[in-house]
Amino acid sequence: MHQQKVAIVTGASQGIGAGVVAAYRQNGFAVVATSRNIQPSADRDVLAVAGDIRERAVAERVVAAALERFGRIDTLVNNAGIFIGKPFTEYTVEDFRNMVDVNLAGFFHITQLTLPHMLKQRSGHVVQITTTLVHQAIAGADAGLAQLTKGGLDAVTRGLAIEYARTGVRVNNIAPGIIKTPMHPEATHAALAGMHPMGRMGEVSEIADAILYLENARFVTGETINVDGGQHAGRW
Q1: Which residue stretches of 27-82 are H helix?
Q2: What is the pLDDT of residues 150-174, one digit of tens each?
Q3: Longest Cα pair distance anywhere in the chain, in angstroms?
């Protein structure tokens, strides 16, 4: 009997995370969805686990819940993250701690706890959501702590891809531009659209489509896909 595949999605209650949960369900996966304020789902194949991803105990709970309910873990989408944009000298120590805790510790705990189960079944896929600003800074869009933390994820994606290349586990990365989510008030949309060579913001569905491409691309690992309307390539 073909066993249903299972994805864990962090930061899953809104925006990109919620769109990724829906996309995986449409592709037949069961999903364990986690974020601080996530509500239970009426869909029996979506298990919501509330908690702060920066805490190792929460990662332990998410992994245990996935195995208890569904018996396996095939994909981990590290989507949870925070973005604080300000001039570098204006960041506070609290800003630094928050971004390191969510963007790096959150990734570390759940990825480290998920990988042994993927290695045991000799198959798995880990995907990080970073930012196109890691490779292409934009004058006036100050984002030093985002580049510091998401840049770490970008680097470790390639490192883990090589570390696990012969195990059946693949590790990839999506680098979005500015995506239309509740994080961005509508009043800012026109200005944000102009920051992309294509002249518009991205849609959540376009991030989900890129992740699903990677899901099915069995010979792709260590890759970064820029879903950014051309931002990484240059200026319009």
Answers
A1: 56-70
A2: 999 999 999 999 999 999 999 999 9
A3: 58
Count how many domains the chain has. Answer: 1
- Residues 47-101 have pLDDT tens digits of 999 999 999 999 999 999 999 999 999 999 999 999 999 999 999 999 999 999 9
Rounded-to-5 percentages of helix, strand, coil across the chain: 45, 15, 40
* Residue 235 pLDDT: 84
Does the residue 203 lie in any domain?
Answer: yes
E strand or H helix that includes residue 6: strand 6-10
The structure tokens 């986690």 sit at 34
Checking if the pLDDT of 215 tops 90, the result is yes
Residues 73, 113: Cα–Cα separation, whole Å:
11
> How is residue 138 written in tokens?
């934009």
The full DSSP string for 77-96 is: EE-------S-GGG--HHHH
CATH of the domain at 122: 3.40.50.720
Residue at 150 is within a domain: yes
First-to-last C-alpha distance (Å) of the chain: 52
What the block records as the tokens of 181 is 């989510």
* Whether residue 1 has pLDDT greater than 60: no
Both tokens assigned to 42: 């009426």
Q: Establish if 24 belongs to a structural domain.
A: yes
Domain that holds residue 133: 6-227
* Residue 225 contacts residue 175 (beta carbons within 8 Å): yes
Q: Say if residues 21 and 9 touch (Cβ distance below 8 Å).
A: yes
Tokens of 23: 């996309």
Q: Is residue 1 part of a domain?
A: no
Q: What is the pLDDT of residue 3?
A: 87
